[in-house]
Design goal:
Shape: globular
Order of helices and strands: EHEHEHEHHEHEEEEHH
Largest sheet: 9 strands, mixed
Pfam families: Radical_SAM, SPASM
InterPro entries: 4Fe4S-binding_SPASM_dom, Aldolase_TIM, Elp3/MiaA/NifB-like_rSAM, Radical_SAM_PqqE_MftC-like, rSAM, rSAM_sf
Number of strands: 9
Keywords: Iron, Iron-sulfur, Metal-binding, S-adenosyl-L-methionine
Distance between the termini: 56 Å
Domain Elp3/MiaA/NifB-like radical SAM core: 7-252
Mean pLDDT: 82
Structural class: alpha/beta
Low-confidence stretches: 259-292
Number of helices: 8
Organism: Streptomyces synnematoformans
Strand content: 5-15%
């Protein structure tokens, strides 16, 4: 059986982030780097995606707005004919020139919002003031007419998950999803990372590419790398034996790809349906104080 089409790719252009969320699947933080992929490498990769017929690219991190050339890469993807470009950002800080690029290139935004209570949100992100700044930039995106979807990761002890979702709706965000904390990245550090923590969509018409060129079945499945675009053409990786092995390993655990009831907001923008999570935290979720 041949490889499925590659419709979606998440491009993790940096491992740096202002925040250090306890659930971060990428284990990103202010200590992260932009990796070894240079701008020509990213542009070549975006061109390869266009040739493969990929419709959507999502710039992620880390925090993609911290990359000094995010605007250039967005414009390149837009010019290469990608149907949709999305930026998954914490929206803590967006440079003025990026707002203009978002509008010019028809960029969609996605973000994570953790509580309607500022102190609770900031405890999870470990960045004082993050709630205020993220909420203000959600408002700005809506005022500028930039499409935005949001996810709430939880619940942890006392976390105001449904309150956060309702606050997003009052801001005019109509696409709101929730997901449990998954035992991956920082949240899976104590017990290892296994395929059962994934949603099962990985490697099905999608992949992710990291800041050092490694190709993964999805952004969360980085422990299942299938090749490196710095050494091997992306088409060869996507159609190669290693990616087929990775996809088979995921199917062995999850069965044939199909939307589960609790899809992580980091996943494909069109994944669904998605309902509120069951009332328990993931295996390695941190407990946090309730709202003051």
């Amino acid at each position: 059986m041949g490889s499925p089409p590659l419709k979606f790719a998440a491009l993790e252009i940096t491992g740096r982030c202002q925040q250090a969320c306890s659930f971060c699947y990428a284990d990103s933080s202010p200590k992260g780097t932009h990796g070894t992929m240079k701008i020509p490498d990213w542009e070549r990769t975006i061109g390869d995606l266009a040739e493969l017929g990929t419709r959507t690219v999502q710039f992620i991190g880390g925090e993609p707005t911290l990359h000094p050339f995010l605007g250039r890469l967005i414009a390149y993807a837009h010019g290469a004919g990608l149907v949709e470009v999305e930026v998954f950002s914490n929206l803590v800080h967006v440079r003025d020139e990026l707002w203009g690029i978002f509008r010019t290139c028809g960029v969609r935004l996605a973000t994570t919002y953790l509580s309607d209570n500022p102190r609770q949100h900031d405890r999870i992100t470990r960045l004082p003031g993050s709630h205020r700044r993220t909420r203000a930039n959600i408002q700005r995106a809506k005022e500028l007419g930039i499409p935005l979807r949001a996810g709430v990761i939880g619940p942890r002890s006392g976390q105001r998950v449904q309150n956060a979702a309702e606050d997003l709706r009052t801001l005019g965000v109509t696409q709101v999803k929730t997901d449990r904390t998954r035992s991956l990245g920082r949240a899976g550090r104590n017990g290892g990372q296994t395929v059962d923590a994934l949603c099962g969509q990985c490697a099905h018409e999608q992949c992710a590419i990291g800041p050092d060129g490694y190709v993964w079945p999805c952004a969360m499945g980085r422990f299942l790398y299938a090749g490196n675009v710095l050494h091997t053409p992306l088409a060869d990786i996507w159609h190669g034996a290693r990616m087929a092995e990775v996809a088979a390993a995921i199917r062995d655990v999850h069965g044939p790809p199909g939307a589960e009831s609790c899809t992580p907001p980091q996943c494909l923008p069109w994944c669904g349906p998605c309902q509120p999570c069951a009332p328990q935290a993931g295996r390695h979720a941190d407990s946090i104080d309730g709202p003051d």
